[in-house]
What does this fold into?
Amino acid sequence: MPTFAETVRDHYQAGIKDETELLTRLNRIIDEIEPPLTAEKFAAFDQFHVGGLAATVELGKRAEITRDIRVLDGDREKPGAEDGDDK
It folds into this structure.
């Protein structure tokens, strides 16, 4: 049975067939963004949830996330996760 971390990894890598091509395409897109890079400029392809950047900002405020804190955004669709059991 896969671990929760493996489940999250597999979720995000499901559509990746050629990692080199993916990174090449992402680098090309990023290179076309005029500096400075901001969350607003990345929002078009980085915010894949309802509410977009505004929802992310609000969540950060409620969770009291600051610039010196690292956050991993995981998928909670694991059986039992609704009970707080995400091991």
The helical segments are 4-13, 19-31, 39-46, 52-62. The chain has one domain: 4-83. Residues 16 and 22 are 7 Å apart (CA to CA). The chain has four helices and no strands.
